[in-house]
């Protein structure tokens, strides 16, 4: 049971620490590349020493390699991390079963063992990834999201209240919701909405709130820009942040055209917070290399050549001692920049990110007015509790084909279809025919990706 007074005091204390860490991060922006490298080496040494002393997993995983350079160490996958979770973390009181039970009922500022913030990845490719942070580590995560704002030329102030709106995930276990619950409402008056909410509800609430800053998934930003252009949305944000998904040039162009505001792309991950963000020069996303060492590698974990897209990223979080992530694999393909940014910050630039393009599906409105876009999060939230190892939604001319992998024999396909139909009806659309198909594995495209939601229809833009 939460204690309102204790929660308020906790938020005030975190707020104080937040400004301290945010100021430290701001000072790092004026470092040279040599200063940044020296800091990385120092922090990496401390992290590895802590892991080798307190993590039975790393004692085994890095046996005989503890004095080797980072690039010689083995790669840690999500599956490997979850299989060895209790041995990997550095607090022997942490147990996976009670932690997972804690996550099931997670709300607001709830902390595991009253000291750890738990974040969970979507788990769309199989098992969820769970990531723990103690108070000091969690403040770093929260403060990392002040960087996109300051890099966009805005000032984070204790006295200047800025009305914000976010359209992301509303699930309490996801990092975006956890961060929103951390900061005091009086300092960041914010309207938080789920990307899965019906579009007319999003439009109405945004019109009532009139945000100064809009933060949304890239695909939602595109939808809202279209709503503004059509005259149904009437907001005037001075700054727009695109989150979590690949931002296309067309989405950027449309958003900036309808709102007359600059749009800034940012790259956040559950594992370590804000991994990258654009500055006012718009030459790419600066990587937060004072928090995380990032390696862009090919499928064999070798560094990619300049001008080539990576197959994945390997990240080493320099600040998380509770759950050390050393050469942890992220399934993101990026193109690294080869030149320094004109702003003078020392951090490497990501010029482009491939993959994770969220595809909205469009359906006729039940009111017969226009098409309605349904965000992938609608489907993701339905799949959250389903006993599957993989899934995919395909939109075809004859309806939706739902591929489900790893289902138990006793699974009720019809009950699932009814639940999906009801969720889609709540979006205000004419629901097409639904066909559930049991498959062994989810098919992948030529690049090896397995998109969760895709349309096979031709649509005029």
Short account of what is shown:
The protein has 14 helices and 20 strands. It is an alpha/beta fold and 461 residues long.
Descriptors:
four-stranded mixed sheet; 461 residues; Rossmann fold; alpha/beta; GMP Synthetase, Chain A, domain 3; nine-stranded mixed sheet; 20 strands; 2 domains
Question: How would you describe what is shown here?
Answer:
The chain is built from 14 helices and 20 strands. The longest helix is centred in the N-terminal third of the chain and has 25 residues.
Q: What would you call the shape?
A: globular
Count of beta strands: 20
Mean pLDDT: 89
Beta-strand residue fraction: 15-25%
Could you tell me the radius of gyration in angstroms?
Answer: 22 Å
Quote the distance from N terminus to C terminus.
50 Å
CATH topology of the largest domain: Rossmann fold
CATH superfamily of the largest domain: ANL, N-terminal domain
Number of domains: 2
CATH class of the largest domain: Alpha Beta
Count the helices. How many?
14
Structural class: alpha/beta
Low-confidence spans? none
- Helical proportion, percent range: 25-40%
CATH architecture classification name of the largest domain: 3-Layer(aba) Sandwich
Summarize the topology:
Blueprint (H helix, E strand, L loop, with lengths): L3 H25 L4 H22 L1 H6 L16 H6 L1 H4 L7 H9 L12 E4 L9 E4 L1 H10 L2 H5 L12 E5 L6 H8 L7 E5 L4 H11 L3 E5 H12 L9 E5 L5 H11 L2 E8 L3 E6 L6 E3 L4 E6 L14 E6 L10 E3 L2 E4 L12 E6 L6 E4 L6 E4 L1 H8 L6 E7 L2 E7 L7 H13 L8 E6 L13 E3 L6
Parallel strand pairs: 3-4, 3-5, 5-6, 6-7, 17-20, 18-19
Antiparallel strand pairs: 1-2, 7-8, 8-9, 9-14, 10-11, 11-12, 13-14, 15-16, 17-18
């Amino acid at each position: 049971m939460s204690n309102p007074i204790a929660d308020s005091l906790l938020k005030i204390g975190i707020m104080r620490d937040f400004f301290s860490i945010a100021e430290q991060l701001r000072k790092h922006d004026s470092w040279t590349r040599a200063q940044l490298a020296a800091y990385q080496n120092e922090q990496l040494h401390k992290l590895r020493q802590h892991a080798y002393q307190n993590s039975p997993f790393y004692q085994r995983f890095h046996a005989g390699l503890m004095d080797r350079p980072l690039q010689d160490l083995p790669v840690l996958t999500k599956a490997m991390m979850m299989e060895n979770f209790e041995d990997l973390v550095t607090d022997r009181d942490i147990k996976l079963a009670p932690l997972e039970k804690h996550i099931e009922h997670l709300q607001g500022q709830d902390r595991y063992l009253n000291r750890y913030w738990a974040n969970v990845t979507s788990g769309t490719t199989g098992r969820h990834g769970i990531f723990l942070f103690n108070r000091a580590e969690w403040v770093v995560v929260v403060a990392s999201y002040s960087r996109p704002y300051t890099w966009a030329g805005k000032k984070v102030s204790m006295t200047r209240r800025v009305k914000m709106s976010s359209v992301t995930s509303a699930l309490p276990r996801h990092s975006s919701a956890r961060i929103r619950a951390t900061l005091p409402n009086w300092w960041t008056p914010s309207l938080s909405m789920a990307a899965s909410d019906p579009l007319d509800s999003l439009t109405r609430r945004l019109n009532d709130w009139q945000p100064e800053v809009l933060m949304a998934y890239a695909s939602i930003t595109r939808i809202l820009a279209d709503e503004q252009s059509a005259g149904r949305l009437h907001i005037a944000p001075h700054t727009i942040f695109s989150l979590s998904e690949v931002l296309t040039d067309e989405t950027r162009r449309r958003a900036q055209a309808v709102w007359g505001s600059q749009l800034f792309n940012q790259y956040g991950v559950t594992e370590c917070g804000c991994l990258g963000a654009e500055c006012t020069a718009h030459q790419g996303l600066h990587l937060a290399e004072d928090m995380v060492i990032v390696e862009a590698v090919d499928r064999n974990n070798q560094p990619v050549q300049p001008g080539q897209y990576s197959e994945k990223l390997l990240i080493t979080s320099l600040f998380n001692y509770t759950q050390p992530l050393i050469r942890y694999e992220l399934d993101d393909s990026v193109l690294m920049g080869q030149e320094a940014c004109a702003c003078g910050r020392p951090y490497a630039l990501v010029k482009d990110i491939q993959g994770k393009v969220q595809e909205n599906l469009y359906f006729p409105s039940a009111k017969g007015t226009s098409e309605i876009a349904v965000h992938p999060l609608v489907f993701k939230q339905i799949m959250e509790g389903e006993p599957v190892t993989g899934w995919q939604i395909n939109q075809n001319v004859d309806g939706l084909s739902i591929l489900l992998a790893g289902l138990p024999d006793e699974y009720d396909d019809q009950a699932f279809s009814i639940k999906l139909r009801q969720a889609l009806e709540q979006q205000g659309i004419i629901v097409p025919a639904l066909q559930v198909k049991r498959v062994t594995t989810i098919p992948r495209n030529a690049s090896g990706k397995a998109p969760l939601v895709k349309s096979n229809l031709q649509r005029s833009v």
